[in-house]
Amino acid sequence: MTKAFETPVLICGGGGAGLSMSIFLSALGIESVLVERHAGTSHLPKAHYLNQRSMEIFREHGLAEPVYSRGSQAQNMGAVAWYTTLAGSGPLDRKLIYKMDAFGGGKTREIYARDSACRSGNLPQLHLEPLLREHAERSPLASVRFGNELVAFEQDGSGVTSTIRTELGQTYTVRSQYLVAADRGRTIGPQLGIQLEGPTGLVDICSSHISADLSPYIDDDDPLIRWFINPEGGGSWGSGAIVPMGPNRYDRHSRDWVVHFGFRPDDPEFDEALVAPRIRQLLRIPDLELTVHKVSHWLVESVLASKYRGGRAVVIGDAAHRHPPTTGLGLNSGIQDAHNLAWKLAALVRGHAGESLLDSYEAERRPIARRNTRWALFTFMNHFVIDAGLGMIPGATPEANAAAFAALLAEGEEGETLRARLHEVIQTQRTEFTAHDMEIGFHYSSGAVVGDGTPPPPRAPMGDVYHPTTRPGHRLPHAWLERGGQRLSTHDLCGRGRFVLFTGAAGAAWKAAAAAAAQRFGVPVGVHQVGPGGDCVDLEGTWQGLRQTGDDGAILVRPDAHVGWRAATAPRQPAEALAAALGAILGR
Question: Residue 443 and residue 472: Cα distance in Å, rounded?
């Protein structure tokens, strides 16, 4: 065994969450070591949708533009659609059943653009993880070690000692102040007594990464996901879905695709040799030339870690929660876990915070994961409601289902009524495809937040209507401001390890208060005064309508762009009030 070396933070796992954690810590000036047992990044497309909140985080770290340039163009991910088949010559083949706006496209584009400086993104983990790895390895503060497996660890009062094994079988030890588990619950969680709890093994799904030319059979380039439902397929998951996987184009000319389909009770036992014939059958292209790169067979589950922390070890990403793919909340939650945790670890490593700040990670992120895992399962199961809206009856014969489809597509009053019913039913799937409030409206009700006693904004039961607010615990609302002739988002003025105080035209006294608080706690506290005499101008008047404070009030934003505290108007002693709030957040 070679000599041990030390690092503030050891990250176990080099997937989306682990690599993001390495990047975020480096941006905060904190050294880290990342170990990943595999020799390279993901060989499966895996998750691909990146919601606006994740893209805002990536924007802060210089990753948004690379994701946009390597991933889907906006015009190729603004809808989802349902069809009977992709090809075929039968009377019910190649019929468009329904198309709806999705992911900030179509009629939702203006709403999504109003609420964030970033559009949603789409880049499969197969291509995202190498980008994250490149970015992580670029920092001299990060040691990124693939082909290195954490095999054991021990904790004491001041740190963690981990044993790492290389591909050649050699071992060495790493001494760290903190250990972050992004290992899908494989090694660290079980030793901490963490259990993943919730329903599992619900549906059998096969996902196949293939290369094929499907352009002759596709005549619309805006859907990101194409679902197939037909009399023979047996419903949404039985008939399959396809998603373009690039690598250079994400329209009909995409080289790679992922085909998802569920197993039926009468299907033979899973056999990879049967996958290509099954795909040709599902797509109705019997002579399709295709290359099957990788087949993954997995069970739908919705599970949550029983706790997020054991001493100086914490879990993030798939080690803390696992989701059905619907709504795309899995990878996004992992990135947001890392963003929430990184600034807290940085403050602890520097001695700027008390242990309660680490406790706040679970207090804040676990309720969000509970909500997200349940929502993802809900939207997965809602696809069976769509089957019912089509008139498909469980256990019905293909002939009966064919009659239901024929009636749905027929001319006349009956067909119009059936299509109107389908519209009402299928629009319930906006819970998956336009989950705007779920994606950027989540908030922390406890943890490193100083509440002000105000009620939360209205909640949209379908998760689609976001209400911006500066209430403590919520994500800072986006608004375009001008500073020094440059157009910037409110989010561009936050992050990078800083606390930021937003105040109005009459808030000059807050500058001295911020300087005093920064000196007292040793953390940077920036101040942006928006309005006449300030450094920022609200040219469009948007911030004036969003801030929910007076000209002399203040909003304290944490390094993760969530509001930590606010004062609707200036108190008698601004410096004392701000210091008390900052101390409470930091556990000081």
Answer: 8
Cβ atoms 452, 568 nearer than 8 A: yes
In the numeric block, which tokens belong to residue 111? 């709403």
What per-residue confidence (pLDDT) applies to 268?
63
The C-alpha atoms of residue 150 and residue 35 are separated, in whole angstroms, by 7
**Which of these, 293, 211, 205, lies nearest to 257 by C-alpha position?**
211
| Co-location of 52 and 179 in the same domain | yes
Q: What is the pLDDT of residues 143-198, one digit of tens each?
A: 999 999 999 999 999 999 999 999 999 999 999 999 999 999 999 999 999 999 99
The type of residue at 3 is K
58 and 146 in a single domain? The answer is yes
299 forms bridges with which residues in the sheet? 204
pTM of the predicted model as reported, rounded to 2 decimal places: 0.96
The answer to whether the CB of 458 falls within 8 A of the CB of 443 is: no
| β-strands 303-305, 196-197 pairing | antiparallel
Domain count, the chain: 2
Whether 139 is in a domain gets the answer yes
Does residue 420 register a pLDDT over 80? yes
CA 314 – CA 235 distance, rounded (Å) = 41
| Class of residue 411 by CB neighbours under 10 A (exposed 0-12, middle 13-18, buried 19+) | exposed
| CA proximity to 13, closest of 33, 30, 28, 29 | 33
Convert the pLDDT of each residue in 292-319 to its tens digit.
999 988 889 999 999 999 999 999 999 9
Tokens of 151: 């095999």
